[in-house]
């Protein structure tokens, strides 16, 4: 039999792109309760492919099984990593492939106008309904943040225990230690991603409110503004979970350029 050869980088890239295309053609993720991904063979395939794709890009991704809290953390992250408003099937599928890491986070939609565009495109009997839908989406985000934070804190405590245990388990090989470190980094980067996206969503909500107020003025805007203030008040609950630079370290945003050192002027 001919000797097997490693797949060249271009070949692996083509295979990854082909897998992404196949998954994209399959449509959006099959949804369960509260918009979360339903347990199914299809969603498992997407998740597995996402882990492999993330590993290929040298992003933190572990082959370890998820703990109950880690699985819950990913379920509760779902809302913040998917579009806030119903969109076109292609855009939803693209967002899901990004959430599951088949595609890198750089594929995510950063357009601040996207929520407003989707909101005004939906058929409503009255303009007031748009304000109420906006308020409902904002409130749903705000209510989920404390639950996400509580789960993230439990995961962080478990990760601390995991790392502290490594020196005492003498039978661990280098690969097991690497997988443990990758899972800790993976969990932290997921929290960083959610923290980033909650800010992006707040900006989209604020843009939608401001433009609705010009397009179809209504006293309902007062209620929406209060909801936004509540969301901003709860978003700060995510800050103590990670250092400020976590998003840059995880590759979610560009790291700030290092400032040139100021010359030291000797005093005589």
Automatic annotation (TrEMBL):
Domain of life: Bacteria
Protein name as catalogued: Lipoprotein
The organism's taxonomic lineage, starting at the top: Bacteria, Pseudomonadati, Pseudomonadota, Alphaproteobacteria, Hyphomicrobiales
């Amino acid at each position: 039999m001919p000797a097997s050869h490693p797949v060249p980088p271009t070949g692996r890239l083509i295979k990854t792109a082909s897998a992404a295309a196949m998954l994209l053609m399959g449509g959006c993720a099959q949804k369960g309760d509260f918009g979360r991904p339903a347990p199914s063979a299809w969603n498992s395939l997407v998740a597995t492919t996402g882990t492999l794709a993330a590993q290929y890009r040298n992003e933190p991704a572990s082959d370890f099984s998820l703990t109950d809290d880690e699985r819950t953390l990913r379920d509760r992250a779902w809302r913040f990593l998917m579009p806030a408003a119903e969109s076109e099937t292609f855009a939803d599928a693209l967002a899901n492939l990004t959430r599951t890491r088949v595609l890198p986070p750089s594929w995510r939609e950063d357009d601040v106008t996207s929520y407003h565009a989707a909101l005004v495109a939906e058929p409503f009997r009255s303009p007031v309904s748009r304000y109420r839908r906006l308020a409902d989406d904002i409130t749903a985000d705000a209510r989920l943040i404390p639950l996400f934070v509580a789960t993230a804190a439990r995961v962080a405590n478990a990760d601390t225990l995991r790392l502290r245990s490594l020196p005492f388990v003498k039978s661990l090989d280098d690969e097991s230690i690497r997988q443990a470190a990758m899972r800790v980094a993976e969990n932290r980067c997921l929290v960083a991603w959610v923290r980033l996206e909650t800010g992006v969503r707040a900006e989209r909500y604020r843009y939608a409110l401001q433009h609705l107020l010009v397009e179809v003025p209504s006293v309902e805007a007062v209620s929406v503004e209060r909801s936004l203030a509540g969301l901003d008040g709860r978003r700060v609950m995510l800050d103590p979970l990670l250092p400020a630079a976590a998003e840059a370290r995880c590759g979610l945003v560009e790291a700030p350029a290092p400032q040139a050192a100021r010359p030291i002027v000797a005093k005589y």
